[in-house]
Amino acid sequence: MISIESIRKDFPILGREVYGKPLVYLDNAATTQKPQCVIDSISDAYRNVNANVHRGIHFLSQEATDMLEAARDNVRRFIGAGSTEEIIFTRGTTESINLLASSFAWAFLKEDDEVLISGMEHHSNIVPWQIQAQRYGFKLKVIPVTDLGELDMDAFDKLLGPKTKLVSITHVSNVLGTVNPVREIVAKAHKLGIPVAVDGAQSVPHISVNIKEMGADFYAFSGHKIYGPTGIGVLFGRRELLEKMPPYQGGGEMIKKVTFQGTTYNDLPYKFEAGTPDYVGSIALGVALDYVQNIGMEQIAGYESELCSYAMQRLGEIPGMRFIGNAPKRSGVVSFLVGNIHPSDMGTLLDRLGIAVRTGHHCAEPLMDRFGIPGTVRASFAFYNTKAEIDTLVAGIERVRQMF
Ligand code: PLP
Q1: What beta strand segments (E) does 266-403 contain?
Q2: C-alpha of residue 3 to centroid of ligand 1, in Å
Q3: What is the pTM of this model?
Q4: Catalytic residues
């Protein structure tokens, strides 16, 4: 059982007031709040062990390096990967996918090849592929989204073919909350020898992820969405593929030997980590992962699923409520519109009541076009949210509705 009262005390910001009202923070899909242990780990690292990693023979440098590498191993365990060589630290999901797109395209993609994405991708799993498609001439194919907000799996079966060289798909939609059948997607793609990349930005904070069980060849996520700091993220990649892929950036750390005649690259994962890494961010991410593991990912998933169902039920009682995304398998996020009220009006007025929700296209403009809407109001949950906060949201929406 999760003890919400004691958990909430771990997050100092949750005690804040905005406009004289207690903060109701329901924008967790954008970023999560940080527990005190994560905040402390950042100042502890700068206060006590700060030194550049990997290059120094002095005490502090070695200690900082050990802590960074321990964090890498922590990430490996957390997502059930086989080796730390497969865990690349990046700035976040966006950088992870840009790295993947740039390096994978250079190694493997040519004219007339196809990369398969879906109609519910975040811009960060669309635009990096478009940039590389312009360079290499491959085509981007899109799995359509059904009215319920699920992937059209019949269309997926038809789109998957000899030209497909990679499937890159979100695990959980940041708009619809849909949990996609990644294992089925991986199984079908692997049957044809096609690797699969999974955008885990919205899944890793909510669902217990095991890369080996999922079978994904690449998996990306952001530290700040799982109670860690901003500016740190992860790309998991299967070793056989990473070894064939060229570096993304050049500089220090990623080389073995540099001469003006040519350069040899470092081993994995350092080949993909040019320059001074955000070792403080990595260390703090490790602390965040320890924190959620202490609560238990299964516990978190169970509690959040209860919160989500309660939110759908209570919000569903509001006249004029229209949910965008009605997939039965969902996680973390509820998107909606109420009558003719513009989402940004709703968001602005809820804000005045102390309720933080997100409004707009949520970096998924093609998905907005699919549903013929300019945007949605999105409430997104974390394990520190309560049913009472959902009641406050519902009362807030009722107040706004009566004003219109
Ligand atoms: N993918 C999904 C599904 C997301 O929800 C987000 C952020 O909201 C991203 C990718 C990008 O994450 P970041 O901005 O942390 O790089």
Answers
A1: 321-323, 333-338, 355-356, 358-360, 376-380
A2: 29
A3: 0.98
A4: 363
